[in-house]
Design a protein that fits this description.
The protein has about 475 residues and is mainly alpha-helical. It is built from 19 helices and two strands. It has a two-stranded antiparallel sheet with strand order 1-2.
Length: about 475
């Protein structure tokens, strides 16, 4: 016997590892499909951005902005409709069709020769993505025991964001090879666009995902008392759309998670446009310092997700969710008050730890406390709210920073002497407001949870969490 063990022993070792980490082979396949599609999404994002810049000629920034808006804005308005369809239709077939459709759309991109055509392509890709996401999220609790949901959401977060550097590396390597390649002969058929082979590779990732999802033993659980939902009756979509939003308001757990995540993202989302400005104007460390802050934040998210996965059985999810949101706000307040880069990087890591825990716990609570019949609509609704809050933060953050900067210059000449000089540029004041917003989000989430606990103690338990279909009838 070798040091590595026999093939049978290695197989048992892999099976045991997969059981501990992924819970079931079925979820491992779904997670693998998510890894592949996320890599494809990021790869397509990079390639489409390059094509948009090329087609934009004199205004590449505007072209990129319009094309990316075509991927971002539809989710605000139509995600919930996609959730209705995910609850009506067979989710496995829906995911397979969406994967194959996205592959087909990507094969068309090399034929695009104008920005408006690229916008149409982006809208089509986003439409199928909007259908795929709620179908996937609604399927997770049906593939593994509830005790593995926290770990499952940690793995899903890893699959979504850790694939970006992988996609970036693939894009860079393929693009460098294409620069040296000669598109002569039959190979010229593939080079309708300089990024053509990248889009073909991207399409292949979605085909692989479709094959993986097709092998899943998903059975759409439905309330036998309402068989009409299994058929496609378009006149009922508006009613089910309204039921989904009402469920999100009536169910205390779902409501607290949505309030916490949405409000926190309004505050935390301001970091996206303002962190670089803060690094340059306040810390005076330039773009390299900004990169260090982002690295600390990203590392913190990874640590938070890992620690939460290891301690999932010892954590009270409701309380820890609210504390994670509040902790992220407090750490953001502290980080935006500091003037030393090493300390800011350290506290940014703490923000990441709390943010990672907030994300994983929020999704786990939704998985555990949402009935299967409405789970697609709940996650689609969250997706819609999240996008709206991020867009709001991206727009409002810079405007607030500019307004606060003028106010600070008039009132305090952008600094205040309280025994030591405190610089008060608009970007710092805006980040303080963002931190306070996140703290308020945590307090609101905790208040909602306490109200639920008081209601349960009085004998009126959360029927929406345990009897989803009945709660809809009561609505």
């Amino acid at each position: 016997m070798t040091a590595e063990g026999t093939p049978v022993e290695r197989r048992h070792t892999w099976t045991g590892f997969r059981q501990r980490v992924f819970g079931t082979p079925q979820f491992f396949r779904l997670w693998s499909a998510q890894v592949v599609t996320s890599t494809g999404d990021w790869l397509g994002f990079l390639a489409i951005s390059v094509v948009a810049a090329r087609l934009g000629s004199g205004t590449p920034e505007a072209a990129i902005g319009v094309v990316l808006a075509a991927r971002l804005v539809p989710g605000i308005f139509f995600a919930q409709v996609a959730g209705v369809l995910a609850d009506r239709w067979d989710r496995r077939r829906l995911m397979v069709v969406c994967d194959l459709a996205r592959a087909g759309v990507l094969l068309v991109v090399p034929l695009v020769n104008s920005v408006w055509q690229l916008v149409l392509v982006s809208l089509a890709l986003e439409a199928f993505t909007l259908l795929w996401i709620p179908a996937k999220e609604a399927s997770v609790p049906n593939l593994l025991p509830s005790g593995h949901l926290t770990a499952a959401n940690s793995l899903s977060m890893f699959a979504t964001y850790a694939t970006f550097p992988v996609a970036s590396l693939i894009f860079a390597r393929v693009a460098s090879r294409l620069e040296d390649a000669s598109p002569d002969g039959w190979l010229g058929l593939l080079y309708l666009d300089n990024q053509g082979p990248i889009f073909y590779l991207d399409a292949l990732t979605f085909v692989v995902s479709a094959v993986l999802v097709f092998s899943l033993p998903l059975r759409h659980r439905r309330d036998p008392s309402s068989p009409a939902r299994a058929s496609v009756r378009w006149e009922g979509i508006f009613r089910e759309y309204r039921e989904g939003w009402r469920y999100m308001v009536v169910n205390p757990t779902v409501r607290s998670v949505n309030i916490g995540l949405a409000t926190a993202l309004i505050g935390g989302g301001m970091l996206i446009p303002l962190a670089l400005v803060y690094a340059i104007e306040v810390l005076r460390v330039g773009e390299q310092g900004f990169a260090d802050i982002v690295t600390g934040l990203s590392a913190g998210v990874g640590v938070g997700v890992l620690v939460l996965s290891l301690l999932q059985r010892r954590v009270h999810k409701h309380r820890m969710f609210a504390r994670s949101v509040t902790g992220a706000g407090v750490c953001l307040l502290v980080a935006s008050s500091l003037g030393s880069l090493p300390w800011v990087v350290l506290v940014a890591g703490a923000v990441g730890v709390c943010a990672g825990g907030m994300y994983v716990l929020g999704f786990t609570l939704l998985h555990e406390h949402t009935a299967d019949e409405v789970r697609g609509r709940v996650f689609a609704g969250l997706y819609s709210v999240v996008r709206l809050c991020v867009v709001l933060a991206l727009v409002v953050g810079p405007l607030l920073a500019a307004a606060f900067d003028r106010i600070s210059e008039v009132l305090w000449d952008r600094s205040l002497d309280i025994g030591f000089v405190v610089e008060l540029p608009g970007v710092r004041l805006t980040l303080w407001l963002a931190g306070l917003t996140v703290v308020v989000a945590g307090l609101l989430a905790r208040r909602t949870q306490r109200a639920q606990a008081a209601t349960d103690a009085n004998g009126t338990s959360d029927s929406a969490g345990s009897n989803g279909a009945e709660s809809l009838e009561d609505c």
